[in-house]
């Protein structure tokens, strides 16, 4: 690795750290109850954003100096990231496509609420990329709302509603959760017009003694669906999709028939789980051939097979989060070897 590449790597690590600080500051600003603190937090957010932009400019200059060409890590890595959702999620993709085709297109149902379990370990974010891509093809894409509770943070109805209120610029003096929910939903629903497609995403760590999930489905989501149904009278074809990404596993008794549905008995007011599976050796091998561009560098079938096998074995038989790291490491090494040769 050259001195310039070392510098780029250090800057990228610094950028990653700043982005984490920026995200934390933004969440703190969103969640603060003290209006006097908001301007100070905004200054902090702006300062961190400027520092990130400064580092990005330094990285851009270094890459220009290093003369990275078409075979550079940067060019390839973007292709790999874009194509990763093609690697798996066959069952989930079929379920999503069937729901959209059977219910959305016929207008039998124009809302769906999906559940992803072990979302981090199983790379649920890649499945969500696929959902977004499909949604953008079926209507007028309305900017989504995405909110992640911190790993150590208990999911809270108030914090969730505060984030939504901030997103839709709602000033509320509600005295109860019910009033708060009503005000937020009033603004959210009135913001959607005919043909809009809206995605609402929330990520959390499930706790058995916490009632957020039940509230979200049985109170918030039910009310949202009911209001959107009425709004469709004057603004037809509004589609609303929710995704609950749970970092851990929800006990089966919690996922009762009152809360969940199946594809065969689909109900847009209930949760439908999308299965996230491990990546098979064959799936990794096929992805390498179709999307890695290694064949254009002269890699042969036996080399691809060996690479896929090693990635599969070193990632606990294709656990997506580990397999992703192994895949990126193998691909980066391959590009580096190509540049040296």
Explain what you see.
The chain is α/β, with parallel strands linked by helices and 341 residues long. The protein folds into 3 domains: 1-67; 89-273, Rossmann fold (3-Layer(aba) Sandwich), CATH 3.40.50; 278-341. 55% of the residues lie in helices and 11% in strands. The protein has 11 helices and 5 strands, in the order ααααβαβααβαββααα. Strands 2-3-4-1-5 form a 5-stranded parallel sheet, sandwiched between helices. α7 (177-191) packs across α8. It is globular and about 60 Å long.
Could you give a short description of this structure?
The chain has 341 residues and is an alpha/beta fold.
The biggest sheet, with number of strands, parallel, antiparallel or mixed sense and barrel status, is:
5 strands, parallel
The geometry reads as: globular
**Strand-and-helix sequence, N→C?**
HHHHEHEHHEHEEHHH
- What's the overall average pLDDT, rounded? 87
Features:
alpha/beta; five-stranded parallel beta sheet; about 350 residues; 3 domains; Rossmann fold; about 55% helix
